[in-house]
What does this fold into?
Amino acid sequence: MLDQEELFRLAVNAMESQRHAEAVVLLKQGVANDGQDSRLHYLLGAEYAQIGMPDRAAASMEQAVALQPNLVMAVFQLGLLYLTQGRPDDARRAWLGLDILPKDAALQLFRLGLEHLIRDEFAECRALLTEGIAANQEVPALNADMERILQQIASHDAEAAQTASQDEASSGSANSLFLRGYAASGDEQLH
It folds into this structure.
C-alpha cells in the first residue's frame, strides 16, 4: 500500500512522462485516501485538463482551491480553465484569489492581461502578458501558454486588418472570428 507522499511523487513522475492513465489512477487513489490533500486535487485537475476533460478539471481545481485558497497556481489555472470554457465571469471570480499577490507578480500580470482580453482590449492584454512573461522565471510552460495567446492576438489583429482593408463588414463577423479561433485551438482532426 502506497502512502500519500509516494502517491504524490509517483503521480508527478507519471505526469511528467505523459503516462496519463497511470497519473489519473494514482491521483484518484490519493484523493480517495485523503480527500483533504489539496495538492492531489490540483494535480488531478491539471491532468484532467491535459486529457481534455474540462468539467472534471474544473471540479478538481475548485476542490483544491476550496481546501487551500492560497494555492495561487491552482487559482490562476482554474480561472484560465473557466476562460477557455467561455465562462469569463467565473474566471474573474476565481482570479480574485490572486489578490494576495503583489501587483508585479507574474500571475497577477497574466490575470490582468487576460481580463483585458475578455474586454477585447488587445493592446493592454499584449503589454501585460509580455510583462508577465518577463517576470515569470519559475514556470516556463506557463510562459509558453501566454506566448500562444499573444500569437492568437497577433493572428486576430492580422485578420482584422485584412478584413478592414477589404471592407467586408458582416453582422456575423464577431461570431465567425470566435469560431475560427476555437477551431484553431487544437482540433487538428477537424481540418
